[in-house]
Amino acid sequence: MFKLIICCAVVVSMLTACDVKKEQLHEDTKNNIQNKIVSSLKAMDVRGPMTVGFNAQNQKVVVDAYITEEQKSQLIDKYGDDLIEVNISEIVSGLVGYVVRVENGKILVVDPNVQDYGAQGGEKFFYNASWYSNAPDEVKVGQKVEVKVIEGPITTQYPGDSTAEKVIIIPHINAGNAILLEEEAIRKAMASNEYQHSIAATDEWLPVIKGATYNEKTSMWTVNFTNKSTDQVISIPIEDEQ
Q: pTM to 2 decimals?
C-alpha cells in the first residue's frame, strides 16, 4: 500500500511504469498462490490427474482434482472462495476394448474399433490404446473390459499410460452350446503358430483383437486380429474344445 501511494503521488509520466510494476506484483502473487495450492493438494495425497490454472475472466485460481467434499472445503477455507474455484473430478469411462498384454502388474487395452484421421493429416488406421496400472490380478489377455479412470488431462503418448480406478470385465454370451468362452478362444488363437507368424504378433506393432465369432454347425471359433498400421485382418480358426 505504501508503494501504491507513492506511485499515485508522482508525475503522470511515471504512472505507466507503476502500473507495470503492480501487474508484475500481481503475477508473482498469482504464481505463488498456485504453487501453494499444488503443495496443499500433494499433502492431501490426491490420486489421479489434477490441474491448477488461472481463470483470467473471474481472476480465480481454478483447481480440478479427485478430492472429497471435505478436502474441497479445506481448500476454500484456506485460500478463500474469492480467490479459488475448486471442481471435483469424477470417475469416468477411460476405454472399452480387449486386453492384449499383461506385464508387470499392468494391462494393455486396445479398442477394436478403427478410427481414420487420414483426412486431418494423421494416421489412417488408428486404434485407441492405453496401459493401465492398478488392474485386478484376475484380468487376463483376451478379455473385453471397460476401464474406469479419474477424469483429467489425457497423456499424448501412445499407447497411453494411466491408473485404473475400476476394471469391469464384460461377459461374452456364447451362441449355442460352445465349450469355450470368447476369451479362451482368443488366448488359444494367440498361442497358435499361425498367430505368432502373423502381422498381429510383430513386436514393433500393436496387436489388435477385433473379436471372435462361433459357428455352432462346425463347432469352430474364428478369431480376428490386425495391427494398428493396416486394415488387413487375420482370421484364425479355433476348435471349440478345451
A: 0.79
